[in-house]
UniProtKB/TrEMBL annotation:
It comes from Nonomuraea rhodomycinica. GO terms for cellular component: extracellular region. The keyword Secreted applies. Belongs to the protease inhibitor I16 (SSI) family. One of its GO terms (biological process) is proteolysis. This is Serine protease. The keyword Membrane does not apply. Residues 50-105 form the Subtilisin inhibitor domain. Residues 1-22 form the signal peptide.
Amino acid sequence: MRRLLCLAVLSCTAFAATPALAETHSRDTDRRVFVIIVGDKGTVLSCRQRSPKPACVALERAGGDPARLPSRTDAVCTMEYNPVRVSALGVWGGRPVRYERTFSNSCQMQAAMGPLSQF
């Protein structure tokens, strides 16, 4: 009888916990957060689905991958060498994302990163 009671309690606990686990999983797959560091400045970008922020819209179109952001083809940049390092670490749709790249100068970085570089 004791074994049957323990089994019943464990079964109820498992069923009661299932919605909470599903809700947690749903929140994790909806999570879209980045820490972006450009040179010596940094910011946290938090995007909810259908966010109006230009950086969030650009990332949504790129599937959350900063490497897939479309570069501006009309940008006119000098050939000076003044390197700018960009790092982005975050989660997009429950998937971890890590991005690092060094650009020759800030103009080339802005042309490649678009609104993600403007903070």
